Amino acid sequence: MKKALGAILLLAGIGLMLYPFLIERQQAKGTESLEQALALIDTGEPANLDELPVSQKDLEGTFSLEIPSIGLEQYILPETTEENLNLALTQIKPGQVPGQGNFTIAGHRGWRDGRHFSNLSEVAIGEQVMLHADGQTFVYEITESAVIPPTAVEVLDDQPDVDELTLITCTVSGKDRLAVKGKLVDSP
């Protein structure tokens, strides 16, 4: 009886340890499919979207974010859903226009280094980030970084005559949010 219980607990422990790796593998396959579909759309060839939970319209509205200081280059899907957040970064507010108002982006923190916004807390004040949209690049300079409660949604609001970028992710504990803001310093 004790041996059977021990074996069950051992198998359960192994299963719990493997679960994050299985989820990561599934998300990596989705991200790879997303990248392949976007590459096909760029060349004008039809893309097979059967394996993706996003539409071709969403793919055509995809931008990308580059943060050189942490080696981040990620796609930004136009709608925040759990499926989209598992694949890429997402726009928080619908219908945003790069370089106008407060362009807001959400991303999972990720448990593995280098995935989504796992290293966002390392971005320092004064560093530049680039938002690539429709063949144009918008450059933002980071002005602030703060841990905020999840209810502090005013961080997403547009400010009069201010064009900025707000990047949001969870803290390590998941209880709070990290908000990193930057002001537009160069646009086409």
From TrEMBL:
Pfam families: Sortase. The active site is at 108 (proton donor/acceptor), 170 (acyl-thioester intermediate). Gene3D superfamilies: Sortase. Keywords: Hydrolase. It comes from the Bacteria. InterPro entries: Sortase, Sortase_D_2, Sortase_dom-sf. One of its GO terms (molecular function) is hydrolase activity. This is Class D sortase. It comes from Bhargavaea beijingensis. The lineage of its organism: Bacteria, Bacillati, Bacillota, Bacilli, Bacillales.
